[in-house]
Amino acid sequence: METSGPSRKALRWKLWDYSTPGDYFVTICTDAKAPLFGVVAHGRMILNEAGKMVQRVWNNLPEHYPGMESGEAVVMPDHFHGIVRIIGRDQSPANAGRDQSPARTAPPLSLPDIMRNFKSYTTSQFFKVCCPAGGGPRKLWHRSYWDVIVQDEKALANIQNYIRFNPQNYEAVMQCGEPRFIGNQALFMQPKVGFLASRGAISLHGTLPLCKDDAILSGFLSPLERQVFWAGLKNRRPLIWVKPWSLDEGLNVLTIQTALAEGRLLVLSPFEKSTAPSVRRALWCNEYVIAQCQRLVVGHLNPEGMLACILSEADPDKQLVYL
């Protein structure tokens, strides 16, 4: 029997009504990830005129859509994060005391409506005000956007913190510098399949879609990622280990030494101090994996976790497979 293999996850949940009241975490990338909105300096986002325009339009959205509130948001050089809270038109203070009979009730406000109009208006303002003479990019935004349906208050707090500290994390990642290597650097020239997995799962939901010469690229941090690492060593699979601590730490294991000696393992890290992995070091590893791989396989995803937030910033055209 023919079975369908893993495929890229749809950006929108097909069975979800996006007019349902609740919080939604959204991310939009600029077209081709062009840095159009300013720069990060000393852990702060310094907005240019285009960035200020995007922030202003976001802040003013509730004036045009009484059924929503605009929550925590940040404009970054090449992407935008924000939280949309849909409260429903009939719950909006602007509609208090108004006739809510069926004949006067407007269609439900939905997240796609909000995002489509936000992108459209910011695009028109960008070319009218920020780039009136031409000569700039042909498009402002990528064709779609990423969303996460926020499940509870804990998830909301995690996402708010991610947004709030995004400029600091962004700068920390940019300042890590070039990695150093131990092992067979020729592996970096082979096709690379990135593998990332949130914590919370200990076994794969399927098999990794690998071709014969594919090297697995990962930080091998979460339990599921470590399981893939040890299985890869056992099965003599080419591996590229992106480490969040010092380069030579943790290599004094027979199976690892054998893989290094036989040219089946490449270890890389920009970090020198032998300290426990921090959130920002893990962030660097995951973003490096996403940037360097040709295909990315996600073994398990916690929708409210850091990995989901990082994936929202990835190149929207990256080939992405969920198991």
Features:
323 residues, Alpha-Beta Plaits, Rossmann fold, 2 domains, seven-stranded mixed sheet, 8 helices, disordered N terminus
User: Which percent range describes the beta-strand content?
Assistant: 15-25%
- Write down the domain tally: 2
Task: Examine the secondary-structure arrangement and name the CATH architecture of the largest domain.
Answer: 3-Layer(aba) Sandwich
Specify the structural class.
alpha/beta
CATH class of the largest domain: Alpha Beta
Query: Which spans of ≥5 residues are poorly predicted at pLDDT below 50?
Result: 1-10, 96-105
CATH fold-type name of the largest domain: Rossmann fold
Could you give the order of the helices and strands? Answer: EEEHEEHEHHEEEHEHEHEHE
End-to-end Cα distance, whole Å, is 19 Å
Give the overall pLDDT as a whole number: 85
Total beta strands: 13
Helix content: 25-40%
Radius of gyration: 22 Å
Task: Label the overall shape.
Answer: globular
Instruction: Outline the biggest β-sheet.
Output: 7 strands, mixed
Strands side by side in the biggest sheet: 7-11-10-9-8-12-13
| Total DSSP helices | 8
Topology (SSEs and partners):
Elements: E1 22-29, E2 38-41, E3 44-47, H1 49-64, E4 68-75, E5 79-86, H2 111-130, E6 146-149, H3 153-164, H4 166-174, E7 180-183, E8 192-197, E9 215-218, H5 223-234, E10 239-242, H6 254-261, E11 265-269, H7 279-292, E12 295-300, H8 306-312, E13 319-322
Parallel strand pairs: 8-9, 8-12, 9-10, 10-11, 12-13
Antiparallel strand pairs: 1-5, 1-6, 2-3, 4-5, 7-11
